[in-house]
Prior knowledge:
18 strands, globular, disordered C terminus, alpha/beta, 18% helix, 29% strand, nine-stranded mixed sheet, seven-stranded mixed sheet
Amino acid sequence: MSAAATRLTSETHLHVRGELLTPLSEGALWWDTQRTLIVSDLHLEKGSSFAARGQMLPPYDTSATLAVVEALVRTYQPQRVISLGDSFHDRKAETRMDSEDANRVRALTAQTDWVWVEGNHDPDPPEHLGGRPSKVLRVGEIVFRHEPTGESGEIAGHLHPCAKVVSRVRALRRRCFVTDGERLIMPALGAFTGGLNVLDEAYAPCFPDGGMMVFAMARDAVIPVSAKRLVPDRRRPDLGQWRLNTGSVNKG
Length: 252
């Protein structure tokens, strides 16, 4: 049995518009019948963007993010990879990316039908890195776009969903997948990306039919979370910041 098949027998599965999908603990989504791997919000070169503005972050986010994607491609051997917007942190990200990481991106895009879906950070993906651009991608009943609209069959990113989950002893904050069976919002996969709590009002128009279900990322699994265990983040002054496990950085 292949490594992918072994994983799929023990993973959580969910449906969107009748299609069986597998949310992965790395933050990606696997669509087995289409041999398609979906990732979202890589935000490559976010660290160098902040460094250029004087906020010094370790310059390893691109390498770490690419390592996750490379491992997923080795495991699942997809025919298609969809990068669901904000793949690059800004329009100048490619000029800051070192040659080794650029070669790794080219190697990934050469292996599959790689689709760069347009994001608000990266409307024009770098041509020299391979792959093909798409504003919105439709595959059968499923539509892929960066910013969620609430359309039935939609898989989107952009909001970087996170769940704060309470137990008897503590509260944990985890990236998560959010779905109502008709549409889905993916977590951000990028190493330096923060998140927006799923109880935030921004999610309401994305799920017009209600019934939002949350699947939180654990170390080696994706776990369904009861709505009764979800709590909002503690209110703080709006400083334009994302909360991270180890601190805060400005939104984006």
